[in-house]
Amino acid sequence: EWDQAKACFNAILAERPDDPAVLTQLSYVCSLAGQYRAARAAALRASTHPGPMPPGVLKQLLPRLRTFNEAEAFHRLLERLGPLDRIPVPMLLACAAQLSYFNEQERALAYLDEAKRADPDYPGTLMSRGQVLTYLARSEEAESDLLRSQRRAPEFAQVYWLLSRLRRQTPADNHVA
Questions:
Q1: Amino acid 124: pLDDT
Q2: d(Cα 146, Cα 162) in Å, to the nearest integer?
Q3: Contacting residues for 14 by C-beta, under 8 A, at least 6 apart
């Protein structure tokens, strides 16, 4: 019932104009309804909200902007977050993922480096950082982070996959215990 859902979000917007959370959800609904121009417009409108952006909304809005390849609006939102050392680790990881999808690996790595500085043993950071380092052809560093992630969280299946493609594995030298 996409039309009904859109009507509900528009009714909320009548009461709370330019609410970034409502606009972001409206963008998703419009996308699911196949109305991509309206979805893009709602995401862009949400991105111009002048006040502080709640982290949960920002985590949903950044991928919306990337979906529509709205790099300028995306980067403006990142700038509003302030210095990297003030951004919580979960938000650093979310931003890094979206930057990586934009193929901005060096910039993604800066966010991941800050996340690693804040929590050097967090497996998700180590895995993401290893993946980005792989894209940058920094294999030894990537392997180090991926092996560390594997030791901390052996249940992360993607780490094994990333390690298997990092270099030639041999029976004597491999990542499998």
A1: 96
A2: 8
A3: none
